[in-house]
Write a structure and sequence with these properties.
Helix 2 (about 55-60) links the parallel strand 3 (about 45-50) and strand 4. By secondary structure, the chain is α/β, with parallel strands linked by helices. The protein has helices spanning about 5-20, 55-60, 115-135; strands at about 25-30, 35-40, 45-50, 75-80, 95-100, 100-105. The chain starts with a helix and ends in an 8-residue tail after the last helix.
């Protein structure tokens, strides 16, 4: 489903988030039917969503980023170095990425999740991670994630 550019950005973002001590899950389905490109979970339970944009056209034709705000404490856009960053909303964070890593250029505004939403997100994150690990360990176990 993902373009090669988006896959490379996702790889770099995940590497950078892991280097910061965060756990990451990609392509996590949310309760509103959207799917977050990258969801990161800190040891303290903070939830960050990263929306990857492979080019300006991808950004311009995809206005669903606000649908992610109710599922995270922080929202970032991850783009490559050639992206016109001035179009990214100021309330969102900005990450410059490539296939090898990423740099957080601007922090987002923080909106803390309610306890109930945080619990639901942590359960979704944990279940997705556990199911994917099981599928990796036993590819013929009879289910898909």
């Amino acid at each position: 489903r993902q373009s090669p550019v988006a896959a490379e950005l996702q790889r770099g973002v995940c590497r950078a988030l892991r280097a910061l001590g965060l756990s990451v899950v990609t392509e996590l389905s949310l309760a509103n039917g959207r799917r977050a490109d990258v969801v990161a979970l800190s040891g303290a339970g903070d939830i960050t969503i990263v929306e990857i944009k492979s080019c300006l056209l991808d950004y311009q034709t995809d206005g669903k980023w606000q649908d992610y705000l109710e599922f995270c404490d922080r929202l970032y856009f991850a783009v490559n170095a050639d992206f016109p960053c001035e179009v990214i909303p100021v309330e969102a964070g900005l990450i410059l990425a490539d296939r090898y890593g990423a740099e957080m250029v601007r922090d987002p505004m923080e909106e803390r999740l309610s306890a109930a939403r945080r619990k639901a997100m942590m359960l979704a994150f944990a279940r997705a991670a556990a199911l994917r690990l099981q599928l990796h360990l036993d590819p013929h176990c009879g289910f898909e994630v």
